[in-house]
Amino acid sequence: MILKTWSQGIIASHFVLLIFMIGFFFITHKLKNRIDSNTTMFVLQYIAVVVIMATGIAIVTIDQLVTANITPFLLICIISGTVFLIRPLISLTIFSTSYVAYYHLIALTITNEQVLLSNRVNGITAIGIGFLLSIILWRYNYTNITQKWIIESQQKQLEQMAYYDPLTDLPNRRFFDKLIKQECSSMQRQGHESVILILDIDNFKIINDTYGHPAGDNILRQLADLLKNNVRKSDTVSRFGGEEFVIFMPKTSLEEGYYFAEELRNLIMEKRFTIGSVTLRITSSFGVSLLGDIKNQSSQDYYSLADKALYLAKRCGKNRVEKA
Fold first, then answer.
1. Which structural domain range is residue 82 located in?
2. What PANTHER family does the annotation carry (predicted)?
3. What pLDDT, in 10s, does the model give residues 37-68?
4. Quick one: DSSP state of residue 112?
5. 256 an active-site residue?
6. Domain-terminating residue out of 156, 188, 203
7. Which tens digit of pLDDT belongs to each residue from 278-289?
8. Do both 112 and 137 map to the same domain?
9. Contact between 280 and 272 (Cβ < 8 Å)
10. Is there a single domain that holds both residue 28 and residue 72?
């Protein structure tokens, strides 16, 4: 009778665990490629630990009908501590609760007081090993994740310093040159036109001389914001240095670039730039060039074409747009 009860209990316990693990594997497989699955996976992990610990306690309790061995409980503790990444406080709660359940349940199938006491003491050891392994795993992964986050953060900072202007947070010339090389490949494949647009603040030196360089920097930041907020999503605004800005407009004709530059010129002319309590109006000159056939050219060559158009705009009275 005891052997029959034991065999039925063991089979049922293992069957329940098997069904749960199949379901757990199926759900995690479905969720692993979903971006929004982190929270669900987090919860499922804790559910899995609780179910596995509960099943282990059930198995070792049933085992006491025929043996005093608690190896299944020890194995379950080790597996839970080494397979699942659990926060220390939650780990302490799970293992402590599991021991309380283990402590009381094995008394249902153990009749010998000495064996019961021995298994309860050995259970403390098993729980302690599982909890310790869980803490070690958490600490190891926490350290790795922290170091990875620091490295990624430093890489982003280095990239920001290498490719972005610190004053305006706009891409710099190095970024722009790299972008043009990529666009050259795209134009060769697809055969479309793109435009480079250069603008320069008129008489910017007078602003610096009159109000100081910090005031000039403030004007540059305000202008950068205006440009970013008025270009297309596909366009790229960059600062080459000083009061010179460059806009890259992919899949754009020369005429489209010219009219867009006129719109920007009017926006800049109409905007009120503030320096503390002082309000200023500024004007700007634009040079627009078409990338055209880029087979044997470099980004500097195209910048030179637009720069010549800008020089012409300056020479012809400023506050105007010229195209090359």
1. 2-156
2. DIGUANYLATE CYCLASE DGCM-RELATED, REGULATORY COMPONENTS OF SENSORY TRANSDUCTION SYSTEM
3. 567 777 788 888 888 888 888 888 888 887 88
4. -
5. no
6. 156
7. 899 999 999 999
8. yes
9. yes
10. yes
